[in-house]
Amino acid sequence: MVPRVGIVGAGQLAQMSLAPAAALGIDLRILAASQSDSAAKYFPVTIGDYKDLDQLIAFAEECDVLTFEHELVPNGHVRRLEELGKTVRPSSQTLLHAQDKLHMRKSFSEIDLPQPRWHVVRSSNEITSYPVILKSITGGYDGRGVQLITNQSEAELALASWGAALCEEVVDFDRELAIMIARSPHDQVSIWAVTETVQREGICTQTITPAPHISETTALQAQEIALAIAEHIQLIGVMAVELFDVRGDLLINEIALRPHNSGHWTIEGAVTSQFEQHLRAVLDLPLGSTTLTNSWAVMGNVLGGEQGDLYRPYLHLFARDPELKVHNYAKEVRPGRKVGHVSAVGDDLEDLRARVTHAVDYISGVISEG
Ligand code: ADP
User: Which end of the chain has fewer beta carbons closer than 10 Å to its terminal beta carbon, N or C?
Assistant: First the structure.
């Protein structure tokens, strides 16, 4: 009998899970906050509030395996589901590493994984020199909850709203990298090539895979870090590890325990996408090949701009570049919001980057022709 997988959350990650779930004939259920969520537009979802334990339990009752497209479900709720005998993947213990940055730093220190120097602060007196990076312990995403702090009054302001915070050294990195890995309950593990994530103001704008000019040693270190984390936290499903590249040496920034923006390239760029792999892993099926389909895969995030209609650009864009792939999250366009992404795969990296940049700028309305 086909097991039923429940995904909590119906944003673009659930939306992009629909095609592989349909291809594999997986019986899927999705818990959406509202009908306007990305996946809800294409799939008959269950509407409910994941913060409400009774509603979450009712949804879990309908599913054989429960998984998540975000880290916002209260950890206590996930523990309760486990106590009730529900199969939740990843588990509450694993999930905590992505929900609580202090827990993650402590846990990774236990096995001596390379991280920025860090300590917990509750008052600005505990910061002895500036600048530092302050991070809210819970609840940050897309750079919110992360601040570069250059003096005591800035620290006081941040701590007034956060209470306690994680205080990290400002890492003087050359670039940011990410690596995606999947692990199944059978302890099968699969890893994709290392990705460079190009960032602007704390938001990833483009990814390039494999990371250009990466040495064998650095690529191997990234794999070893991802494997060590996966084993240590007993990962089930897909995980993204965000890394700082400091002259070829890697430090861990943070992890996500689900398909992630830095793995969107896998849809066109790898034999098995992160979305399919996540489904395979949570169902304890053998994992798929992560081999690249082309020499390079470039992904560009479309951030909301002036243009509200993302469909209109299709005509010009598709005529101009028949090899380009566009993913539209069917969201209301708001400035800076991730509303879609484009991908291009091939042999000529500079050409791919130029085409992806053009497409992103054209869709978001930064440029109007060309
Ligand atoms: P979020 O959870 O909001 O994605 P991150 O922890 O990934 O936050 O941080 C957002 C960005 O802030 C990172 O991509 C990086 O550019 C910068 N950053 C985070 N930590 C540090 C650090 N210790 N040193 C320097 N830059 C950092």
Answer: N
